[in-house]
Each structure stands twice: as structure tokens, then as C-alpha cells.
Specification:
Spore Coat Polysaccharide Biosynthesis Protein SpsA, Chain A; 3-stranded mixed beta sheet; 12 helices; alpha/beta; Glycosyltransferase; 375 residues; 12% strand; 10 strands; 7-stranded mixed beta sheet
């Protein structure tokens, strides 16, 4: 039994260090932004698409903010999905002030379609430009160069998908710190594999792709029955090594309002994990190999300490745990500089354990669930 536990521990440790050094570390240490010279090569039009349900309060602040984007040719298309909070009247008023704002109002959603995918499809279909940039009503670009940076790989490099980072507003409290760490780790994960030319997901808070490609693939064909997944599953189905770019720059990110109660947060994560069951097998393997080895690393290490309480094995286990924690601390800090322009993430060892528990508890609930919804 001891040999089996030791074997599992070293195998899990090997996988963890491989991911940290060669997958996450490659992005953290070697990714370089293409620089300013490519941003203005082609200033073709960009359509910002926002699907919103009862978001009048957010739209009132967001629309004027987006109008200050440092880009010469763009429009904003808001899809008002059955709102009852005065969104339609607000959008009508704002449209008189801003000529590049358009809105589509949905009165009902066909029974066989999921609401957010239907809203996004309508918005993309009526958009004027081939480059569409998606975000949510509660998101805020941190820079006036957001459109310019997120759309550059499509405009200048003929890419189909551009994956961006959608962070969350920092607030006091344990829940917010868990959300910050989990969101950062998720970003590091899909940015790292995207940088390795093996993209598997993106987030709808900050995602750019071609309208023509969307229409060619018949929108969300084969995904209509799945609640959620309008972002990660669409990317998962169609992104590949030749048509996808990642943009990691502090000016390219959006910041959203985080959940403020554990109940709301659990509901959100349940929806996210529910979509994960529909990933392609190779992408489930990417996720599963890291997360399973993460679990085995901790459980096998604890098992060794309990079963063999002499100082040599305890020292070896603690040494590997601390070495991994230090490596993770450095890599997360460097990756965060690329993504957000910030550095250190404190208490990484504690939040790493929280992340593991979070993934397996909420992940299993979301994976097994049959009832999730947008709003």
C-alpha cells in the first residue's frame, strides 16, 4: 500500500510540475504582446454585441462608457431580451443621442431555443460589421483601447477567434478573493493552451470572432439545447491552432461585477461546469489530467504523512508541496502581470486548496445537473 501511495504521489507531482513549468509557465514567462505597431494597420468596423435582460441600470452606465472607445468605426448592438425594467425606453432614448447604437427587442423566445444564444444570434445577424466583439451588460472595459486591442488579430492577422480576459471587481471578503483566484486560474489555463496553439474555451465577457464564420457554422448549431456555453462551447467546437489568437494586455481586459453571496456564486459556477461536460474529449483530458493530479497530489501527500509519520517522508512531502507552492506563486504572479498589469497573488497555497475543493464539489454538481438557466 505504501508503494502505491508513493507512486501516486510522485506521478501526480510530476504532472503538476509539468503543467506549471511547460504549460502555464510558457505563457507566464514567454508571451509577448505584438506591440503598438499592429493596432492601427486596418481599422475596419467592429460590432459590439450585448445580450441584456433587465439590465437598464448597467446599460445606462455602460453605453456612454463604450462610446468613448478610441476606435474610429464601431457600433453597439444591444439585444433587449424580454426586459421589464424600462430597458426598451432607455435604449430608445440613448439611440437618439448615439447614432452608432442600435437595439433589438425580443418579445418571446421559441420553446426549443435557449434564451441567451437566441439573443446573441439575433444581435450578430443584424450587426453591420464582420468583426463582432462580445461582452455583458455588467462588464466594463478598463481602457479606451479595448476595441482596438481585442479586434487587432482579426483585422490584421485574419484570425477567426480572439480570446480575452474577463476579470471581476475586487471587493472585501473571502468570497471575492475566491472568485478572483478562480477567475485568474481559469484565464491562465485557457490562455496557456491558446498560446500553445491548442485553444479550448473563451469567456463571453470578452470574446471576439468573425460574423461570417458564425453564420457559416449556422450559429449555435448542435448547441441550442444546452443552457449556457454560448461562449466556451462555441469556441470549443470551432477554435483551432490556425484560427485563434489570445490577447493578454492590461488594456484588453473587462471587469465585471462579481457575485456577492455564496448562493449566487454556486449557481453561476454550476452553470459554467454544466457546459464543461460537452467539451471535446481531448479538452476534457487537458482539464482532467491537471485537476485529477491536483487532487491526488494532496490526498496522497496527506496519506503518506498519516501512514508513515517519520521525519524523512514528511520532509520530502513538505518539500515538494512547498516547491510547488513557490513555483505556482511565481507563475501566477507573472501571468497576472501579462493579463492585468498587476503582480503578486497572496495566499496562493490556501486558495489553491480552495480552488481544488471548489472544482470537485461544484464541478460534480454542475456536471450531473440537468437544470441550469441564464436568467
Amino acid at each position: 500500500m505504501d508503494m502505491i501511495i508513493w507512486g501516486l504521489f510522485f506521478l501526480a507531482a510530476g504532472i503538476q510540475f509539468t503543467y506549471l513549468l511547460f504549460v502555464f509557465g510558457r505563457f507566464a514567462f514567454f508571451y509577448k504582446d505584438k506591440g503598438e505597431q499592429n493596432l492601427d494597420l486596418n481599422t475596419s468596423g467592429v460590432s459590439i454585441i450585448i445580450a441584456a435582460k433587465n439590465e437598464a441600470t448597467h446599460l445606462k452606465d455602460l453605453i456612454p462608457l463604450l462610446m468613448n472607445q478610441n476606435y474610429p468605426k464601431f457600433e453597439i448592438v444591444v439585444v433587449n431580451d424580454r426586459s421589464t425594467d424600462g430597458s426598451e425606453e432607455l435604449l430608445a432614448t440613448l439611440s437618439k443621442e448615439y447614432t452608432n447604437l442600435r437595439s433589438v427587442t425580443i418579445r418571446y423566445t421559441p420553446a426549443h431555443l435557449t434564451s441567451k444564444k437566441y439573443a446573441l444570434t439575433l444581435g450578430i445577424k443584424v450587426s453591420a460589421y464582420d468583426t463582432v466583439l462580445l461582452t455583458d451588460a455588467d462588464c466594463r472595459p478598463v481602457s479606451s483601447n479595448w476595441i482596438k486591442r481585442m479586434s487587432a488579430p482579426i483585422r490584421n492577422d485574419q484570425m477567426t477567434f480572439v480570446l480575452g480576459h474577463g476579470s471581476y471587481l475586487a471587493l472585501p471578503g473571502l468570497l471575492n478573493k475566491i472568485i478572483q483566484f478562480e477567475t485568474l486560474m481559469t484565464a491562465i489555463y485557457y490562455f496557456s493552451f491558446g498560446y500553445w496553439k491548442s485553444p479550448f474555451m473563451g469567456v463571453g465577457r470578452n470574446l471576439c470572432y468573425r460574423k461570417d464564420f458564425f453564420i457559416e457554422k449556422k450559429a449555435f448549431k448542435s448547441l441550442w439545447h444546452i443552457e449556457g456555453g454560448d461562449d466556451d462551447l462555441f469556441v470549443n467546437r470551432h477554435a483551432n491552432s490556425k484560427n485563434t489568437a489570445v490577447v493578454a494586455h492590461p488594456e484588453s481586459i473587462t471587469v465585471s461585477e462579481p457575485k456577492t453571496s455564496f448562493k449566487e456564486y454556486f449557481m453561476q459556477k454550476k452553470r459554467h461546469f454544466h457546459a464543461g461536460k460537452y467539451y471535446q474529449a481531448k479538452d476534457k483530458l487537458k482539464l482532467g489530467l491537471y485537476t485529477l493530479s491536483h487532487l491526488v497530489f494532496w490526498f496522497a501527500g496527506i496519506g503518506i504523512v498519516i501512514l508513515d509519520a517519520s521525519w524523512e517522508p514528511i520532509a520530502l512531502v513538505l518539500g515538494l508541496v512547498l516547491a510547488r507552492a513557490l513555483l505556482q506563486y511565481v507563475i501566477i504572479g507573472e501571468a497576472r502581470k501579462k493579463l492585468e498589469g498587476k503582480g503578486k497573488v497572496i495566499w496562493t497555497l490556501f486558495f489553491d486548496l480552495m480552488y481544488m475543493v471548489n472544482y470537485w464539489v461544484l464541478g460534480m454538481q454542475g456536471y450531473l445537473s440537468k437544470t441550469v438557466k441564464w436568467k
